[in-house]
Amino acid sequence: MKQQRRNARTGLNYLFLILVGLIMVYPLIWLFASSFKTNADIFGSSRLLPSTYVWDSYRLGWQGTGQYGFQDFFINTLLLVIPTVMFTVISSVIVAYGFARFNFPFKTLLFSVMIATLMLPNASVLIPRYILFNKLGWLDTYLPFIVPAAFATGAFFVYMMIQFIRGLPRDLDEAATIDGCNSFTVLTRVLLPLCKPAIFSVGLFQFMWTWNDFFNSIIYISSVKKFTVSLGLRLSLDTSSAVSWNQVLAMSVVSIVPCILLFFFTQKYFVEGISTTGLKG
Predict the structure, then answer these.
(1) For the segment 100-122, what is each residue's pLDDT rounded down to a tens digit?
(2) Cross-referenced InterPro entries, in alphabetical order (predicted)?
(3) Most buried pick, 23, 55, 155, 250, via CB within 10 A?
(4) How far is it, in rounded angstroms, from Cα 204 to Cα 129?
(5) The whole model's pTM is what?
(6) 34 assigned to some structural domain
(7) Distances (CA, A) of 254 to 14, 35, 244
(8) Quick check: 146 and 80 in contact, CB under 8 A?
């Protein structure tokens, strides 16, 4: 009798989780299904499946309506995102290693200033950054995204790495030093292999945030030939003719595929990094 109750309770729990999962995934299902609908179906019917299928929405959406196709926006986004993610990971690891393992003058003050930057609203630094990048001649380039990433300006990522490195035993550093390793070798050969969960978490967060970034992209990038995916989607709504919403939704599906694939390929390290970063230290 107790076993039957336990099985029934487990079945109800799974049913509840399935229902919640369907509610959360339904917008994505609707997005994919609507990419095959006509405009009349999208706005005139609440049905999930289309009454009339449009099979060329992905092909036409990928070709684009102007001089540049969606493949150009896709390539531009990769040219922006990949260096930004790489420099973010490298710089965050180096700065976090310094804070977590070394003592130097004004360490506490510098750490406090870094944490304080997390409290700054993005709007408060938007105008000063724009003026600075304008004087440097970086507007309408990807440098406003790439160069700051190379100098560990992401305090959230640095703090995440600090917490993870602090959780690693210092005995590892001492043993490697006895074996003849210097501080840089300790980082590259001993700590970095152990920091994979945190590194993957930092890379995944930065990839998704930069890939989906619309606000900063529209401020710093003005040439259509340098538009990213998010700006390319917005550009398709600026046409003088009627908007083919199935093509817009189709390219929206394509634009989220890299983030979804990256998450599923790295979810093991991502979940481990998130769960251990906040508990160690």
Answers:
(1) 999 989 999 999 999 998 888 88
(2) MetI-like, MetI-like_sf
(3) 250
(4) 25
(5) 0.87
(6) no
(7) 31, 11, 16
(8) yes
